Structure formats: C-alpha cells, structure tokens
Amino acid sequence: MKSSTVFLSLVPVLWFLSVRVSAGPTCGPCDPAQCAPLPEQGCRSGSVLDSCACCSVCAAAEGEACGSRVLRVRCGSGLECVRKKKSGVCGCKSNYEVCGTDGTTYRTGCALKSASQVAEAEGKEPISVQNKGRCATAPVIVTPPGQVFNVSGSQVFLSCEAVGVPTPVLTWKKVLNGGKKKMELLPGDRENLAIQTRGGPEKHEVTGWVLISPLTTEEEGSYECHATNSKGEASAVGAIHVVESIDDIIVKKVTKEDEL
Known about the structure:
The chain is of the alpha+beta class. Helices cover 15% and strands 38% of the residues.
C-alpha cells in the first residue's frame, strides 16, 4: 500500500519534468537541405547560425529583440544583446559618431554598417568608416546677428552663432561707408567695444558677441559676423541703430507665425 502511494506521488513530478523538457529547444541531426532560405534582399545585420548551429538565419539588427527564452535570436556583428528583464535588445558596442566614405555622419558604426548593406543590396558602393566623429562640413550661420535700436550712452550687443566641422573661427567686421564694401576688423582700437567668443552651446558650434558700452553715433551701422574653417566660410550681417529717445526704439512683436 505504501509503495503504490509513493508511485502516485511521483507521477505529478515526472509529468512536470516531461513538460519542462519538451518545452525546451531540441536539436536533431543537422540537414542543411531543410533550412529555410535567407531573404533575397539580404539581412540588415548579416546572418548567423541558429541556436542549433545548423541553419543560417538573419541576425537581429540594432534596436531589435534578442536573447529571450522564446525568441532565441542573436545580434549581428558589432552588436550586443542588452538585457532588459527576461528579454533583450540589440545595441551597438560603440556609441560614438562616425563619418562614412559617402560623406554622411552616422550615429554609430552599426548604423553605418546597416546603411552599407542597403547600399550594396541596391548595387551601390559599400560604405566604410572615413574617420571617427562627424564628417567635415563648411560653416553655417545658425543664428545671425539682428537689428539693435538704442540711445546714445546705453550698452548694446550683437550676437551670432555658427556651426561646422572643424569648429569654425568667428570674427567680426564693421561695414564702412563708401562706394565699395570696405570692412574694419574688430575690435580695432575702440575702448568702448569688445569682442567675445566661446564654444557651444552645441558641439562644433561657436557663439560670438560684439559688446559696446557706451554706445555712440560712431558705432551706428552694419556689422558682419564671419565664420570660417578648412571646408569653407559663411557670413551674416546685423546692424546697430542709434535713436534719439527710448520711444523711438523698435520692438518686434512676436506673432504665432514667428513661433512656428
């Protein structure tokens, strides 16, 4: 009677174990002829062997799921499976920007590799890493100097922001009156005028100011912000206007169209 009781008590345990074993992956003899073909357009992140090391399957690309117990997918070359609870997501092992031979800046080397595979699938030249960091670009004035109106004796400034790779060098010039467009490089010998420059606020960006205190009629006129680097140059012009009274100062009203 005791033996039959022990046998019955083992039945649920054996059944549970059999379920656990049958639920796991099983690998029989490898027959490549039974493997499903890879997509005709190729795989974004190349191919890898499946969990049984038999068939070639598409590797998971950056941002795709990987490594869960149910989804036994491996990441492509240069990627790693970043665990998030029970599953994971493929992420690039490198996290810095790279410049491709196509002149495009890619967020990571993995993004460049994916773009190269797409290019090759379309019959174009493959893309390789030209250098770490962003691709070299000519300067662009992102915030030009504006129009300033104020009375004599006040303190005023013009500002300018430019971006480029390498980071541009910023200079200021005052447009002189005359038949031809002549420039005076600032600050010159003016005691009431100063030039300031600093990097930022974004990477490869530079910000510069013309500071005038006190303002006189001699400082009235147009001012050019000039940015240059090894790839080119760019410029933009602002102006300072001296008015007789504070009532003559022009204040631009911001409309909904300006905000958009």
